[in-house]
Amino acid sequence: MEQPALGISDGIYAYKHLCEGGIDIHEIVVKKSSFRILLYYIGTICLLATVCRTLLSKEGLYLSSLWSISFAGIVAKCLRCDPVKKESLVIMPTFGVQLEQHFWSGRVRRKFVPIGKILKPVLNECVTPVICYWSLALLLRDEYELMLVFMKLRPPAKMLVPIWNALCAFKNSDSTRRLADPHPKDSACSPESKLKT
Amino acid sequence: MVSDFFFPNFGGVESHIYYLSQCLLKLGHKVVVMTHAYGNRSGVRYVTNGLKVYYVPWRPFLMQNTLPTLFLTLPIVRTIIIREKISVVHGHQAFSTLCHEALMHARTMGYKVVFTDHSLYGFADAGSIHMNKVLQFTLADIDQAICVSHTSKENTVLRSGIAPEKVFMVPNAVDTAMFTPSPKRLSCDEIVIVVISRLVYRKGADLLVEVIPEVCRLFPKVRFIIGGDGPKRVRLEEMREKFSLQDRVEMLGAVPHAQVRSRLISGHIFLNSSLTEAFCIAILEAASCGLLTVSTRVGGVPEVLPDDMIVLAEPAPEDMVRAVKKAIDMIPGIDPQVMHLRMKKLYSWDDVAKRTEIVYDRAMQSSTTNLLDRLPRYLTCGSWAGKLFCIVMIINYLLWRLLEFLQPAEDIEVVPDIGPLHAQIQRDDLCEAQENQI
């Protein structure tokens, strides 16, 4: 049964929480901003103009023209829109979680993490040379590195906290289930099944 | 607390920041340390008692100092100050570029700033002239400054031109719980002199090369233990070979700080031959372990210990040998336990934290001024330098305004305040006790 979506929104991202047939879906959607699209086109036009000017001029390729192309390339890269349209986390009780990346081009990249592999979800503070931000990551069994839930997007902590709470509840319910029934029926590992074989 | 010098790097400034932060946490303040990344140690770390450390991924470029970029550290400094709800920015060490930049940015944003100078610098050589100019810039608009000795205060005031009434003297201290004397008193049949320092020119390693053979010649029952490493180690090794002192001079190499106490308690006398010292925590550590100190009379060293715990000498080999002789004669009358108890009363980090708190209160009470009122303070730095500093501050202000437009302070999320770890543990214990009662 589908439940109505709950959401939090800020200037760049919108958070949506859906429940469909017992499956929990948490989505972070990038808001379409005409200003950012305009900046993207400006950056692309600058780069194309610089390249064309260099190629069509009679002087040929000099160090200064290479510098101007590189600089225009950096500006275009900074101004480009993120190719990711939304990232979502799908929690499937007793199975695991699926991390999805939806691109503006329509392509979807999915990654499934079984429940047994997840040790704990953690909220991390990340520090770069210019900014600090929060990230949600999964501690995985037998893995050295953390797995980021949202790989490209950087939603604020107020959006990550309900997702982290949902992951913790999902993990706790699995631990409770394992404690209650360490040897579930018809399992290949149960003593009864071993006697039968 | 901002400085290029923090753990895992080890030294006087690093331990000062650490111990001061721990004691301020105990007093109920929120303390955050900002330093640069050390190798793979990058990002946010929590050390003892929940002290939060930001290892900002700016790589050091020279002697553990971040590359000076003037304005590029503004975004990260602004973000950290806003998200942690900082009220006072406290910079440490004149040689730290990150400290100077952070203080400049904090001042631009209207925060209160305090600076602690840990070292003495000269006036004549090119390096000192440049360093003093940078210090003049930083201290031109500081709220309060702290120096670790009266000599250091005089040096800082002369170098920077800051008003003396803005400078407080708060000495360093020593962890007397860690540096305790040996439970068993050492026999006086053989006198052991301990030297633990970096073997560099500034620490007087060349003096040791002259003093050790003479002392060994005059006093057959004296033995030396030398801990530490550095470029001058080779000279000491050569001295050992030249005078055949291999059985009387033991070279330990670099000694981890956790093992310093065990090395100190194996000796009777601690020898410090520094050519310049603003304070010298090493002699505090030695005195706390019950050793009699022989030291050069330089900088702030005469202010550190009472006269019956230290023998001072001029930084010349003959005078140092005389001082060692006097110390050897004093050894039978020295009780390490009494010395340790006196050090406990004289120096404690809790006292340093309380005195630093007073400085913070004074800084918070100072008036808030806008850019136009602050610019004339930089003009006093020099005819050309003053104008250059004004331009730098104006550009910094404009960049800050641009950042405020692109990313308003309201959009920067504040970090939830969990408080110091010992308070949390107490809260958990209280909850558990209440649950048990129910």
TrEMBL record, chain A:
GO terms for biological process: GPI anchor biosynthetic process. GO terms for cellular component: glycosylphosphatidylinositol-N-acetylglucosaminyltransferase (GPI-GnT) complex. Residues 176-197 are annotated as: Disordered. It holds the Pfam family PIG-H. Residues 88-150 form the Phosphatidylinositol N-acetylglucosaminyltransferase subunit H conserved domain. It comes from Digitaria exilis. This is Phosphatidylinositol N-acetylglucosaminyltransferase subunit H conserved domain-containing protein. Residues 176-186 have a biased composition (Basic and acidic residues). It comes from the Eukaryota.
UniProtKB/TrEMBL annotation, chain B:
Pfam families: Glycos_transf_1, PIGA. Residues 189-329 form the Glycosyl transferase family domain. Residues 36-125 form the PIGA GPI anchor biosynthesis domain. Keywords: Glycosyltransferase, GPI-anchor biosynthesis, Transferase. Its EC number is 2.4.1.198. One of its GO terms (biological process) is GPI anchor biosynthetic process. GO terms for cellular component: glycosylphosphatidylinositol-N-acetylglucosaminyltransferase (GPI-GnT) complex. CDD domains: GT4_PIG-A-like. GO terms for molecular function: phosphatidylinositol N-acetylglucosaminyltransferase activity. Signal peptide: none annotated. It is an enzyme of class 2 (transferase). It comes from the Eukaryota. Pathway: Glycolipid biosynthesis; glycosylphosphatidylinositol-anchor biosynthesis. PANTHER family: N-ACETYLGLUCOSAMINYL-PHOSPHATIDYLINOSITOL BIOSYNTHETIC PROTEIN, PHOSPHATIDYLINOSITOL N-ACETYLGLUCOSAMINYLTRANSFERASE SUBUNIT A. This is phosphatidylinositol N-acetylglucosaminyltransferase. It comes from Digitaria exilis.
